[in-house]
Every structure is written in C-alpha cells, then in structure tokens.
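<instruction>
Derive structure tokens from the sequence
<data>
Labelled lines for chain and fold:
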Amino acid sequence: MIEKFIKWYSNINQAKALGSYAPHKPLTIMYALVNAINGKRWIRYTEDRKSLEKIIAENTKFSSRPNCLQPLWRLTNDSKKIPLWEAIPKTPKLNKSGDISSGEAVAIKFKAGFSEEFYSWITEDISRAQYLISELLKDNFPESLHSGILEMLGVFDLIANPSPLDLQKTKVSQIKRDPKFPPKVLALYDNKCAFCGLKISFINNEHLSMEAAHIKWKKYGGECSPENGMALCPTHHYTFDRGIWTIKDDYQIKLSENIILDKSNDVFFEPYINKDITRHLLDSSFAPALENLTWHNSYILK
C-alpha cells in the first residue's frame, strides 16, 4: 500500500517538481491523515472549511483567500489511475474551471477523503499516518516550519514516534541533506546572522552556531551551495521561511507589506530594513544568486 501511496503522491505534486511553491494538496493530505488518526475518514466542507483554509492560508501567499474545495476536488481527479482519494457525491456540478462552487458544496454536503481501502490500512496502525505526515513535511517544508505546521494540524508528539516496521525501508521524501552546506555557509558569514549581525561565543571561544538557511528551499530544487544560503539566528531564520521578510535584488532587507509591527517595542526588524544582507559576508563572490532571491520573493514573501 505504501508503494501505491508514493506513486500517487509523486504524480499529484507536479508544481513542486517544477520548482513552484503551491503546497495546497500536500497540506490537504496531511489534514486528512490527522483526521484518520482521530477516526475521521471524511473532510466535510461545511465543518472543516475554516480550519483547513486557515492552514493553507498560513503556509501560502496572501494574494487571494484560499479555497480548500480546489485541492479537495482535484485530488479526486488525480486519483483516476490510483484510486486513493474519493469525493461524495462523485459527480457534483462543476464550474467553468472544473471545480465546485462554495454554494454547490454546501447544498450537496460535499465531503472528500481517502478511499476505504487506504483509510482502513492507515487506521490499522495510526503510526502509519504519523510517519506519512512527517515525510510530507520533510518533502515540502524546511525544518524551521515543521513544529508550527504540526501545531496548526493539532499534532504535538509526531516527531517522537518511530516509523512503523512496514515503512522503515520506504521513504516518501527523497530530499537528502548535504552535511557540508551548514559549515560552509556559517564560515562565509563568520558565524554572524546575515540579518542582524548577532554573533555569540563562549568564554572558551567556541561559537554558538547560527543556522544555515536555504534561500530557495531544497524541497523545490534549491541547491546546497553558498549562493543559496545565509547564516541566520533562529528568529530571523524562522521569519525568513515564514515570508515575514526577504532580500531585494540589491541585497537589501525588505519586510513584507502584509505584516504589522509593534514599532514601539520592535528591536528585531525595523532597525535593519534596507540593510545590505552581504555586509557580513567574507567573500562577496558567494553573494546570494539573484534567481534564488527571485524565487523567495515570488513564492514565500507574504
């Protein structure tokens, strides 16, 4: 069954394969897996809409309000060859875009979820669902965002659970880390946060390491190269991945126009707006590549 899931999932995640950031379907699948853990097979539009759309909105751009009907229905279309996802009713009235309207979904009490066969397999051992959630997280989001997404999904002990025996040799996520990436990036920035310049050392001169952040996420084709990395403190790493700030083509820091700062107490962001992100870089030939900055601006900045 796991091999069938991987083949199905690989076919539906086409935007990711092209380097685009559109995790609506993976988030919907994770939401359904959490439902399965809680003994619920169906995502019911009238009951689950607000919570599912909030999760999608928190992890995508603010350009428009997310419509969870799109992934809920389109996962059904994606399941014609490998029937792991179903919708009730099976033949609703569709609009010109091939989707279901909100009014129609309410009228027909639309619901969608895993096929009976896959749901039964998942609920035989809920650690299977927990394992798949962790794999989907690794395949779509940087580690800095995992705990926040799990909290939004209502899962708090996922990472501590070992993968079940029938899945230990199978990986949904094929993303592999390059162990040389962090030390290269941190050394280039002299172990200083590229955003705020923070550098901390113990009395014995041992550095408290910053975090090596990918500008274009590795999950979406970003390379483990210095031109795709920055040394950041935990605060500025997390907020960079959340789209709170980005870097302009001239390497200056830019805050999202969709956030509100309490400027009377802010010491983390306002003082650094328009600062050059390369001011702590020891070798300017390794400045972030413009194509990576463009990707972050296009897909991650809120």
Q: What stands out?
A: Strands lie at 42-44, 85-88, 111-114, 200-201, 207-208, 211-214, 229-232, 245-247, 253-255. The chain is about 40% helix and 10% strand.
